[in-house]
Write a structure and sequence with these properties.
about 0% strand; about 425 residues
């Protein structure tokens, strides 16, 4: 099997794994789903048809793009890359300390980025690049390459920085992944057939701990950590268990959005979202804010995330939004058939670009490729945000493509250059 197909399988497994819990929970907790979402319970045959159609196009384009002769781009001098990356990581490390001293993990729920100091915006602008930096290391580790002192220094600084700037449940997983990369890199190379009982138990415990941390941050941000602690201590955890059916549906936004927009297209024949107008207004406003304060107000800007939130969710908060997910983006594109082609080409491109970092003879098992999409999760949550240009998703895509085309991760990170 080619590297492109292995990576393609990993991306698709991650996407299906992300949507599967929502599908299961919609039937187990249908009443609670209706508290959060409009018309979101029960995917049917029409949803399955669109999913199969998308998967077919995705693999077709992966095979097509992988057969294009690989263009050998020039690599940027490793000394320049090392100096630039270390400078960015160190700035992020310093700013993360300031963030920790002035804010909490509830930042997204209690503050607006546009109303915060400029250095807070820098933190959010740097995070996408740093996820690509980590992904470059991860690509080497799953191939058995040992990292040098420079790389381990970067890992430590990023571990501290990401730990001090956690603001969501998914971000709580990043420090755990970094610790695994630093302390237990051998786990990223173990085959299932070679796992001992102790290794299997340790990996299982690590997964359970990761889920606990994600839920702890997610629930704590919503109801408050003091309240969460009281529920856990005074009620022996029973109140938290009773609260989960209300929380779990809230974690299924991508699935609920997909069900809603397919149903809308099927019953109304179209989705009334003017993507081009949204791109024009939003991008113009963001460029305006760089040079002036006399710009359009947030109340007249209709982004993809805001439009999805207002339609899919039952209750609405001021200025809030919700990422639609990669499948729903097909329908928000305008023409769903054209959208399906564009989004499948986009996902195929992401897979093929990363496959350049994988060498077949070094990869003992392709299982750990499943984690690759996590590093670029924003690219899958709301791909249409790329069109807004001054957006973290666009920044992430730019660095993702640039890194794996123009940077030799082996020479930058490895203890002995590959």
């Amino acid at each position: 099997m080619s590297e492109s197909l292995k990576v393609a399988h990993a991306f698709m497994a991650f996407i299906l794994g992300w949507y599967l819990p929502g599908f299961v929970f919609s039937y187990l907790y249908g009443d609670f789903f209706r508290l959060y979402y409009n018309d979101s319970v029960g995917a049917g045959l029409i949803h399955l048809v669109w999913l199969v159609f998308f998967i077919f196009l995705y693999y077709a384009f992966v095979l097509l793009l992988s057969k294009v002769n690989r263009v050998h781009f020039f690599y940027i001098d490793k000394r320049l890359v090392r100096a630039f990356v270390f400078g960015v990581v160190f700035v992020f490390f310093i700013l993360s300390i300031y963030f920790f001293l002035n804010y909490s993990s509830k930042f997204r729920h209690t503050n607006r980025l546009s109303d915060s100091p400029f250095w807070v915006s820098i933190i959010w602008a740097l995070k996408p690049f740093l996820m690509v930096v980590l992904l470059g290391m991860y690509a080497l580790l799953i191939q058995g390459v040992k990292l040098g002192l420079y790389s381990r220094t970067l890992q430590f600084l990023m571990l501290v920085g990401f730990s001090l700037t956690i603001t969501s449940s998914t971000q709580a997983l990043i420090p755990i992944i970094i610790i695994t990369m630093m302390v237990f890199p051998v786990l990223l190379r173990v085959r299932f057939n070679d796992m001992s009982l102790s290794v299997s138990f340790f990996i299982g415990a690590l997964v359970v701990f990761s889920v606990f941390c994600a839920l702890f941050v997610g629930v704590g941000n919503k109801i408050g950590y003091a309240t969460l602690w009281e529920l856990g201590v005074s009620g022996g955890g029973e109140e938290i268990y009773d609260f989960l059916p209300r929380l779990i549906p809230r974690l299924s936004t991508s699935y609920a959005s997909f069900v809603y927009w397919v149903n809308t297209w099927y019953t109304e024949g179209a989705v009334s979202f003017d993507l081009m107008s949204s791109v024009h207004v939003t991008t113009s406003s963001r460029f305006c804010l760089l040079f002036s304060s006399d710009c359009l107000g947030a109340d007249v800007i209709d982004t993809v995330n805001r439009f999805n939130y207002l339609n899919v969710f039952v209750n609405h908060a001021e200025r809030a939004g919700a990422s639609p997910g990669i499948l729903s983006s097909i329908f928000l594109f305008g023409n769903p058939f054209l959208g399906c082609i564009v989004i499948s080409v986009y996902l195929a491109m992401l897979s093929v670009v990363f496959s350049r970092a994988i060498e077949h003879e070094r990869l003992r098992t392709s299982f750990y490729l499943v984690l690759v999409p996590f590093f670029v999760f924003s690219l899958l949550e709301s791909p249409l945000n790329i069109m807004y240009l001054l957006d973290p998703v666009f920044i992430l895509l730019f660095f993702y493509i640039s890194w794996f085309l123009f940077v030799d991760s082996g020479s930058v990170y490895a203890k002995t250059p590959c």
